[in-house]
Structure formats: C-alpha cells, structure tokens
Amino acid sequence: MIILYNLPEIIEVINTAIMSKMIKEKPDWLRVKAPNSQGYSETRSIVESYGLNTVCHEAACPNIGECWEKKHATFMILGSVCTRSCRFCNVQTGRPDLLDPHEPEKVANAIHKMNLNHAVITSVDRDDLDDGGAEHFANCIKAIRQVNDNITIEVLTPDFLHKKNAVNVIIDAKPDVFNHNIETVPSLYNKIRPGARYFNSLNLLSTVKQSDPTIFTKSGIMVGIGEDDDEVLQVMDDLRAADVDFMTIGQYLQPSEKHAAVDRFVTPDQFDFYARMGRVKGFSMISSSPLTRSSYHADKDFHELREAAKQRRNVS
Predict the structure, then answer these.
(1) Judging by beta carbons within 10 Å of its beta carbon (0-12, 13-18, 19+), is residue 286 exposed, middle or buried?
(2) Chain-centre distance of CA 279, in angstroms?
(3) 212-216 contacts, C-beta under 8 A, 24 or more apart
(4) What is the CA radius of gyration of the chain?
(5) Is 221 helix (H, G, I), strand (E, B) or coil?
(6) Where do the DSSP E strands lie in the chain?
(7) Which listed residue, 42, 57, 89, 158, has the most CB atoms within 10 A of its CB?
(8) In DSSP terms, which residues pair with 122 in a beta bridge?
C-alpha cells in the first residue's frame, strides 16, 4: 500500500501549529503574579461568606491578585450562568440561576465590609427575564446607598436587547457611572458576539447620556482578536458620537481552547497610541494598556474622570 502525502499541505499544518503555539505564549508585559497575598485571601473570604459571584473569578481576570489584594472586587449579580454564548467570555452558558431576592442586601453588606468608596456591579446576560434584570440592578444600587449614601456606584450592564425601557429603570436609580462594553469592532460581531448588535449597544449608551447627562458613560473593547487599527479608531469615533465619556482598551486573552484564538499581542507602544488618539478624539478619560479591563482601577479612574469633567466645565 502506497500513501501519497501532499507536502505543501503538511508544511502548512506544521506552520499553523507553530504559529498557534507562538501566539499563545504571553509576552513579558502580560505576565502577572499568582494571587497569594493576605488581602486577596480576605477579599475571597468576604465574597464567599455572602455566597456572591464576581466577574473577577468567573471571567478569569488576570488582575484578580492585584485588585483583591486591595479589597477591590466587581460583583456579578443575576447568577453565574449567562444566556449568551460569546466567543471571548469565560462565564458559563446555559440555563440561568433563579434570582436571589436577597442578593442586593448581600452585595451591599459585602461592599460595606470591604470599606469600598467606589463599587462596581456587573451581571450575566439574562435574556430570559422580561426586563433583562434591570430592576435587580436598580435594587442593588438602592441597597448599597442605604448602607452608605456617600459611596459612588458604577454599573456594567448587558445590552438589554429587545427589553423595551429596561435601561430607564437603571437610569432612574442614578448610578454614578453607566458602563456597557461594545467589546469589539462591528466586523467581528457575528463571530465574537453573535447574540448582540453593535448599533443597539451604541444606542444604549447614547440613551443613558441623553436621559441623564449627569451620569458618566463608559465603554470598552478588546484588541488582538482580529480587528485592525482603522476599525479601532472608527469605534472610538462611534463612541464619541454617542457622547461616551470614558473608554477602556485591553488585550484579549483566550480563556480556553474552545474560545476565539488570540490573533496578535498588541504592544504597549500601540496601546499608548490608542490612548493618544482617544484623547484627541475627545474622551474625558481613556485607559489603554495590555492589562486594562472594564473595572481595573475603577475607583481611581472615577475620581480622575470626575476631576476632568470639573475642569471642562470651568474652561467652558
């Protein structure tokens, strides 16, 4: 028996395997220490004692060690199971959990125990709920303020696709920052974020600002997932057209083999370029670095954002 091998195909397979291995090897600027500090352990203990979820843990955030050491955590409400199946996200997909009616109070008490000045609340997508979980978000905001009226609150919400007036429920609860991530460029939505619609997300952010200009709006994208620089700059323009105040840009990292592969590791110099362009385009604040995530340094960034807004008002 004679087996004929197609040499060019073999070479292509070998090269693909080599490139795949290379692309998964993180460069030095993406390497972080394993979480093992006392502060990390204390934060983990508080989170577990209230039976709460965090996006830090569920999404395998690389900054968890640094943030939890400082007792900063982003609480993930509405359960730990998402109704969407985005190709970039590590959160479990499937039949959603039952809502915990006591979750708002648990979140508020955990935040109080951590002695936070700035709280960040996010959630899974809940397409199964009539309002997408908007009322639950509002209840969390109210519960946190009942415990500490001086705390500032940032929400990172789903897109509430086909959930008419859901966003208004959260607007009426008056968070200090309304964050909704655009996640990637329009050309990659079908591949990376198939359950979402790019212009729906832009409209959501625009609606918040038009309804209550005192609420800061924020959005972010991942890079290194298949976009090009012109597309990144166009997203910046689209977000500014929606009057978004604050943009975050960070490196996409592949959570597992079943998720979308990393296309490239964007260099720190390129992230600096994005930051410069963002300032030119008019964002009050932009955070752009390999390890930037939606709520990374959120407390510090909020204070800087508020100061930048004050300065703009004084100039005008």
Answers:
(1) buried
(2) 20
(3) 212/171, 212/174, 214/174, 215/171, 215/174, 215/175, 215/176, 215/177, 215/178, 216/176, 216/177, 216/178, 216/245, 216/246, 216/284, 216/302, 216/305, 216/306, 216/309
(4) 20
(5) strand
(6) 53-54, 74-77, 81-82, 92-93, 118-123, 152-156, 177-179, 216-223, 246-251, 285-288
(7) 158
(8) 76, 156
Q: Model confidence over 292-314: pLDDT tens digits?
A: 988 877 888 888 888 888 787 77
Q: Give CA separation, 7 vs 1, 4, 13, 161, in Å.
A: 19, 9, 10, 49
C-alpha span between 86 and 80 (Å, rounded):
15
Phi-psi sector, 32: left (phi>0), alpha (psi -120 to 50), beta? beta
Q: Which regions in the chain score pLDDT beneath 50?
A: 1-5, 7-23
**Angle between helix 198-211 and helix 229-241 axes, rounded to 10 deg:** 30
Q: Is the pTM of this model over 0.90?
A: no
Burial (Cβ within 10 Å: 0-12, 13-18, ≥19) of residue 65: middle
CA atoms of 110 and 48, how far apart (whole Å): 10
Q: For all residues of the chain together, what is the average pLDDT?
A: 88
